[in-house]
Design brief:
It contains 11 helices and 5 strands; from the N terminus they run αααβαββαββαααααα. By secondary structure, it is mainly α. A 3-stranded antiparallel sheet has the order 1-5-4. A two-stranded antiparallel ribbon has the order 2-3. A hairpin with a 2-residue loop joins strand 4 and strand 5. Helix 2 packs across helix 3, helix 7 packs antiparallel against helix 8 and helix 9 crosses helix 10. It is elongated, with a radius of gyration of 25 Å.
Length: about 240
């Protein structure tokens, strides 16, 4: 392994200094300094984190050559990762399982820095704790969807999102700015209250105070738009904070 970052970048173009030293520190701590695959796995994991991912997914990097220099022969520059199967077998032999208490964790085809693995593990635990599957009347659900959404010739993806979420214990609604996420979620909450004919305890959270204020304003606006809908019960609307 190269001892200096400047020498390393001659053969592996585009590797950030922070990725290199993170990998070097971890393989030193694990006493795995001769394990090139582990070293480059950590480099790739660090790069994935900077790209906004919570871990490195082997399926997306397997059988690929990375960090190739434009002014060098492709067969001698960069690093060639093995197939996902061989890569997984190798990492599985190392002491980096969730129970090993080391700074990296390998589990189910994913390589994490331990704190990100802990974040996902805690979130998964909370989701399991708060999710419950409840049976509901399908016809009542269809009637409620008809009240909330006008009939359109084209597919109404907001309606599809609400319909899908009604039958799920856990759902994610995603989309860019102005795509109607808040309106969709408000209609979903109304649909839940109508379909199950009960007053739910609904909790909403936001990452910052400003985001919370915007969420509050958006929900209020969406609720106001539904007040004119004669088919929606006051109980359903009052359940939404």
């Amino acid at each position: 392994m190269f001892s200096r970052y400047s020498d390393f970048t001659l053969a592996y173009a585009g590797v950030r200094e922070i990725d290199y030293y993170l990998a070097k520190t971890i393989v030193d701590a694990l006493d795995q300094t001769e394990d090139d695959l582990l070293f480059f796995s950590i480099v790739a994991c660090s790069e994935s984190l900077r790209d906004g991912h919570s871990c490195l997914q082997l399926s997306e990097w397997g059988d690929s050559r990375r960090w190739v220099s434009n002014d060098r022969d492709e067969t001698t520059s960069g690093y060639q990762f093995p197939s996902e199967t061989d890569w997984s077998k190798h990492l599985s032999t190392l002491p980096i399982s969730p129970s090993a208490n080391h700074p990296i964790v390998y589990e189910n085809g994913r390589l994490y820095l331990r704190r990100y693995w802990q974040f996902e593990d805690e979130l998964a635990g909370l989701i399991k704790r708060y999710t419950h599957l409840i049976e509901f009347d399908t016809q009542r659900a269809l009637d409620t969807l008809s009240l909330l959404f006008k009939a359109e010739a084209e597919i109404d993806w907001q309606k599809v999102s609400v319909a899908n979420a009604l039958g799920k214990q856990f759902s994610i609604v995603t989309g860019g700015p102005g795509t109607g996420k808040t309106t969709t979620v408000t209609k979903l909450l109304v649909a839940l209250c109508e379909v199950f004919n009960t007053a739910f305890t609904i909790k909403m959270v936001a990452p910052t105070g400003k985001a919370a204020q915007r969420l509050t304003e958006s929900i209020q606006k969406a609720k106001s738009a539904l007040l004119s809908n004669a088919g929606i019960s006051s109980q359903a609307l009052s359940s939404i904070p």
